[in-house]
Design goal:
about 15% strand, hydrolase, TIM Barrel, Glyco_hydro/deAcase_b/a-brl, 8 helices, two-stranded parallel ribbon, glycosidase, carbohydrate metabolism, NODB_dom, alpha/beta
């Protein structure tokens, strides 16, 4: 598609050389209202995914990032404040991405809304692999029915497709219905679910040092509170 030329070097699909692969991804989390349910469903379905996390959500809910990694899924950077690239200067955008990187520590980056300025692309490409998509479910659109969203998956999914769902409050109504249906249908079609990076290099499931610090501080606060109650 013509718009892919606007983000040179980005990955829109990652076709398998043998068989059929699919990349299930989730944007905008992690949040306690939705992400744990997604993780449980992925366990039930027996597939792995990649979560493009918003840094501020990781700051608030670091245990959820730990759980995503513990269950064997991949992670990526989705900025710290979920900012719009076309409305933000290159320097401010990069600062926001770097702030998220301190918590997430992934080489994979996806811009919110898929929008970037050329100056942002050039700087980001020096640090990250830009991961886009070729199947966006639009699960966040309340005017779309689950049947319509499932139709997008049936119509556009192919070998190497990168599919986007959202573990967000806005998307959860549609996502909770369609995501399991989509996974089951894709499995029936013979697709193998991959994490972003599985075909490129080993996935690093170690925790960024800043996340370990946040969790440690939280544990220290709990211990201090408990001692005050004794």
């Amino acid at each position: 598609m013509w718009y892919r030329a606007l983000i040179p070097g980005a990955r829109w699909r990652i076709p398998a050389r043998e068989g059929k692969s699919i990349y299930l991804t989730f944007d905008d989390g992690p949040i306690p209202e939705v992400t744990p349910w997604v993780l449980d469903e992925l366990d039930r379905l027996g597939v792995k995914a990649t979560f493009f996390c918003v840094g501020d959500n990781v700051r608030k809910y670091p245990d959820l990032l730990v759980e995503i990694l513990r269950r064997g899924h991949g992670i990526g950077n989705h900025t710290y404040h979920h900012i719009q690239g076309l409305k933000t200067s290159a320097n401010r955008y990069l600062e926001d991405v770097e702030k998220a990187d301190a918590l997430i520590g992934s080489r994979y980056f996806r811009p919110p809304h898929g929008h970037l300025r050329l100056s942002q692309i050039k700087k980001l490409s020096n640090r990250f692999d830009l991961i886009m998509w070729d199947v966006v479910t639009r699960d966040y659109n309340a005017s779309l029915s689950p049947e319509t969203i499932m139709g997008y998956v049936r119509r556009y999914a192919r070998n190497g497709s990168i599919i986007v769902f959202h573990d967000s409050l806005k998307a959860q109504k549609n996502m909770r219905i369609v995501m399991p249906q989509a996974v089951e249908w894709l499995l029936e079609q013979g697709y193998r679910f991959m994490r972003i990076g599985d075909d490129l290099d080993p996935i690093d499931t170690s925790l960024p040092s800043r996340i370990r610090e946040i969790i440690s501080m939280g544990q220290d606060e709990e211990q201090s509170s408990s001692s005050l109650l004794l």
